Amino acid sequence: MGTYNVCVYAICKNEAQFADRWMDSMSEADYIVVLDTGSEDGTAELLRARGAEVTVEAISPWRFDTARNRSLELVPEDADICVCTDLDEVFRPGWREALERAWTPGAGQASYQYTWSFNADGSEGVVFWYEKIHTRHGYQWVHPVHEVLKWVGEGSPGPIVTAEGVRLDHHPDPAKSRAQYLSLLELSVQEEPNDDRNVHYLGREYMYRGRWDDCVRTLKKHLNMATAVWRDERAASMRYIARACWNKGDTAQARDWYLRAITEAPHLREPYIDLAVMLYALEEWDGVLYFTSCALSITIRPRSYICEAAAWGSLPHDLRSIAFYHTGAYSEALAEVKKALELEPENQRLQANLELMEQAANRSQFTEKT
Prior knowledge:
Blueprint: E1 6-12, H1 16-26, E2 31-36, H2 43-49, E3 53-56, H3 64-73, E4 81-84, E5 89-91, H4 95-102, E6 109-115, E7 127-135, E8 139-142, E9 148-151, E10 160-170, H5 180-191, H6 196-208, H7 212-223, H8 231-247, H9 251-264, H10 270-281, H11 285-296, H12 315-326, H13 330-343, H14 348-369
Parallel strand pairs: 1-2, 1-4, 2-3, 6-10
Antiparallel strand pairs: 4-7, 5-10, 6-7, 8-9
């Protein structure tokens, strides 16, 4: 079809609802191979009917890296580019051409834009850059969960090319359980206790589950690791510790950890917005205005997974509008709620706030004139 032999490979289980959509999206590849780990809803048969080569094989005990590596073994030896996706993901049309345009002989991986989540109105939520496209030989998946590619070949891996035109969107089944993630993350840390990334993810998982003490303990461990040097991720650990402290009722500690996160990564919006949200709950309006202003002064959206949708959506302007309203600055409140609505026009609460703030601004102007 093109300059390179391109093979898509995937793992799946009980994803019949996504089979046709996924095959439509992946059809630009030369080959499509799938490891079905035990579907009972006809997924394998649907994929085969659409032209995929499907191998059915149970992975026990279950590990994502084992399954990924087994699916990679199914890729033809003569493939030039391997494209790892999941069945709940969809490429935007033209991805193959954009990938070949970016790929160079000797390249190791390709980085491309990944929309991990979408907002209720269909706009993009969490967006970052991913590297699950790679050359056929020399790579291996590692870690039981949140698995990543590791170079295990001879010499050094080829460079990572940036495939600007490749866009992959994630449209998951919201009912799908992630219950197995915690035990697999605990196993991952047990296997590689010095892997700072895994420790960070484990602490984050404890936060998701409301296990505040475990969250704080694990993320403090992450921050004390010599290899934990990426400032964005360190700031995230500090923010999650702050969130745990806040939920435990320790406002002073929460404030301290949010400020530490800001100091660690002043180039990120998220620490400023997190602190502004807490100050909003405390009705400290001047603080809300200050920290949202700091956040909005950051105009370049990072490409890492740390970037969160709320900080780049209507929330900063929403918080500012309410803070201005409570401090009697009604014209400023009106201007900010209009900015929030530009980013989230269907939000009924913002629409109601707009009406309220228009009335307050009009009353204020009338009083000044009289």
